[in-house]
Design goal:
single chain; mainly alpha; Multidrug-efflux Transporter Regulator, Chain: A, Domain 2; two-stranded antiparallel ribbon; 71% helix; elongated
Length: 129
């Protein structure tokens, strides 16, 4: 399965960040946010880019951008960190999906037990009529 590639507009829509802000981030973090290019020269971004944009947006609300840039690891380390975070998020989604399936199974079991109780109750009501 090929990796989903996103336009800057799609990144902006998903994160609720204006495209102009995303372009600013690209200028400030050119190595971290270097996009792939289509044959027509259009930029395309990966899930790792999306997570990097998200990280920058969330972090810059806590510390000044200048300080963030100074604390950023080498580009290779930063991308590895973003990939690791993305991997952890994907693992969390898998665990949550399993939890949902488990809860659905438990709910089915409870519904079956409830139905059995209701049937017994209906049977006993008939005896007392």
């Amino acid at each position: 399965m090929s990796e989903e590639l996103l336009s800057i507009g799609q990144i902006g829509s998903r994160l609720g960040i204006p495209v102009t802000t995303l372009r600013f981030f690209e200028r400030e973090f050119p190595t971290l946010l270097r996009a792939r290019r289509t044959a027509g020269g259009h930029r395309r971004y990966t899930q790792a880019h999306l997570e990097a944009f998200r990280f920058i947006q969330e972090t810059r609300q806590r510390i000044p951008l200048k300080e963030l840039k100074a604390q950023m690891p080498a580009p290779e380390d930063a991308l590895a960190a973003v990939d690791e975070r993305s991997g952890r998020l994907q693992e969390a989604v898998v665990k949550l999906d399993q939890r949902v399936r488990d809860l659905e199974e438990a709910l089915k079991g409870m519904a079956g037990r409830l139905q059995a109780v209701e049937e017994k109750t209906q049977t006993k009501k008939k005896w007392f009529k």
